[in-house]
Amino acid sequence: MTEAVLLVGGKGTRLQPLTLHTPKPMVPAAGVPFLAHQLARARAAGVDHVVLATSYLAEVFEPYFGDGSAHGIRLTYVHEEEPLGTGGAIRHASRALSARTGEPVLVFNGDILTGLDIADLLLRHERAQAAVTLHLTRVADPRAFGLVPTDAEGRVLAFTEKPRHPDEIVTDQVNAGCYVFRREVIDSIPAGRPVSVERETFPGLLSDGALLHGVVDASYWLDLGRPASFVQASADLVRGIVRSPAVPGEPGESLVLPGAHVGSGARLCGGTVVGAGAHIEAGAEVEGSVVLDGARIEAGARVRASMVGTGARVGPRTVLDGAVIGDHSEIGADNELREGARIWCGTTIPDAAIRFSAV
Predict the structure, then answer these.
(1) How far are the Cα atoms of 108, 116, 285, 298 from residue 112, in angstroms, in the given order?
(2) Are the C-beta atoms of residues 331 and 349 closer than 8 Å to each other?
């Protein structure tokens, strides 16, 4: 048996208003909740039991995924009454694991899309005989991430969590949010209190002389913490830039779910998703965007790199470029929202009220 803990308890505040009523892993990407892609990739790598470490809006997960049998995997739900941090959540979830001392346990963050070969990561962990193996990736600007320098053999040398000064940037290798733990390492994490693996567990293991192994991987990797990244991830999944068995269709420029209506002359491209019951009217253009269930894009509207919430309406000739429209909002005709504009759920904007809005 190969087991995993999937951390899905975060509030997703950087993704608001998308996450006001929906936990971040349940926000749809490429036609299904993002969590479905992570579970499908784990299953494809041979994982047969996943423990979901839930906290925020925990009641949303089980009605959709059940016991996991419909998705080819066994699911167990462990709820945190109070947030326990990454390490505390892993320790809390471990009560549902069957793995014994010396056996590997995968741990995933619930907001990372990656093309990592998970089976290969497990194999390299076993070969290294490491206490923990970390997936690392290289980024152009590492300041927003935890830095993880390694030696020539892949041994982790240090951890610098989100460097504040230029002299702290000693590598472009960052913690990519996927780990393999030996079971006894999980059991050594203090129980019943918040613990950060990045700030406490991993540095503590290093100081104790444990072997932490870093695997630098150059495959697709994207942190979905911000709306622009989430929309990009959905578009990349639709276009097949990164593959997921959970995408309900073949790769292409658009994905139109059953029950959606696309009017004659409407243009869909760039990995756009049109949700069930949504309407794209004649002459509208939607590029690289997510239009959720029941939303309406009216004639002549232009929508690019944006997310339009469930049941929302975008009026005629309105332009959205990098915007997020909350569920059941009404955006009147001839408006223009660009560069990170966010409209809260249930908001009404009259015709021609905004020519440019940014945050």
Answers:
(1) 8, 11, 29, 33
(2) yes
pLDDT digits (tens, 9 = 90+) for 243-288: 999 999 999 999 999 999 999 999 999 999 999 999 999 999 999 9
The answer to whether residues 48 and 153 touch, using CB atoms and an 8 Å cutoff, is no
Are the C-beta atoms of 151 and 130 separated by less than 8 Å? no
> What are the structure tokens assigned to 86, written together?
């990454």
| The amino acid at 27 | V
DSSP letter at 301 equals -
Nearby residues of 63 by Cβ (< 8 Å), 6 or more positions away: none
The residue assigned the tokens 């690019």 is: 304
Rounded to whole angstroms, the Cα distance separating 54 from 138 reads 29
Q: What is the pLDDT of residue 262?
A: 98
Residues with Cβ within 8 Å of residue 70, at least 6 apart in sequence: none
Tokens 């992570």 identify what position? 38
In this structure, which amino acid lies at residue 255?
L
- What pTM did the predictor assign? 0.93
At residue 161, the pLDDT reads 75
Rounded Cα distance, 287 and 209, in Å: 51
**pLDDT band, very low/low/confident/very high, at 357 (cuts 50, 70, 90):** low
